[in-house]
Amino acid sequence: MSAPGPHKRVDGAALVTGAGSGIGRATAIALSAAGIATLYLVDINTSGLESTKSSIESLKLPSPPTIHILPGSVASPEFVAKLFSNIPQLEYAVNCAGVMGENKPTAEVELEEFDGINRVNYRGLWMCQREELKLMLKNQVKPHQGFAIPQDEASIRGQRGSIVNIASQLAIVGKTQASIYTATKAAVMSLTRSDAIDYSKPPHRIRINSICPGIIATGMTLDGTGQVSGRLKDAISIAPMDRIGLPSEIADTAVWLCSGESSFVTGQGIVVDGGYVIN
């Protein structure tokens, strides 16, 4: 039987992009609480990264992670190359970095705006995932450290690594005046599915999944007073749960997808949206 001492849902090293705020910050905190040993935090906002680090340290965890702050933009190939040259080993990656862009119909979007959104949301994520895969392919397959799991099951459920990409509910349904943003998130889901086909199977055994959040309480959705932006209230009411989601709810899903608890899940777009897309 596989029955480790203090149960850690994740261990080893994890990378979180977009970790300076919102979903990325919540994910970094959740991974720390789940037992991660080494944490690489990436964001263009250096002060946001410092705040995330302080939030983790304030938890007073019995075994806190070693935290590396790496400020920069995933839209830059030079930064991405430098970033991964500083990461010797990686078991988990959660790619949260993203931008929304202005609300405009396609005919009013300039090429520079199109490229700006794509450079972060799709090309930047792809560049990161490419390097994450290269690192994970160097890992040994680690058996699933579940509680009281038979050893043969632990081996079958083992993995070299797990990647989680943050897409959007708008990768599945359309939204007025957001064609470029929604297309980038659909691209993330397509990338997730295709790479999962190539890398989930033996001998690679790297799982790749995406999360499709609904409207989440972040700087993108709240106004200056911390209230839901007026333009989003009607959209929130579409969801059967009739409330805005919390960053921690996406973070908990990300930890589950990283961990061996989701060992038979790959290539999926897990929708966490209060039921928006079913209504």
UniProtKB/TrEMBL annotation:
Q: Does the keyword Protease apply?
A: no
Q: Enumerate the UniProt keywords alphabetically.
A: Oxidoreductase
Does this entry carry the keyword Oxidoreductase?
A: yes
What Pfam families is this protein classified in?
Answer: adh_short_C2
Gene Ontology MF: a single term: oxidoreductase activity
Q: Which InterPro entries match?
A: NAD(P)-bd_dom_sf (IPR036291), SDR_fam (IPR002347)
User: What domain of life does the UniProt record list for this protein's source?
Assistant: Eukaryota
Which family does the UniProt entry place this protein in? Belongs to the short-chain dehydrogenases/reductases (SDR) family.
Q: What is this protein called?
A: Oxidoreductase
Q: What is the lineage of its organism?
A: Eukaryota, Fungi, Dikarya, Ascomycota, Pezizomycotina
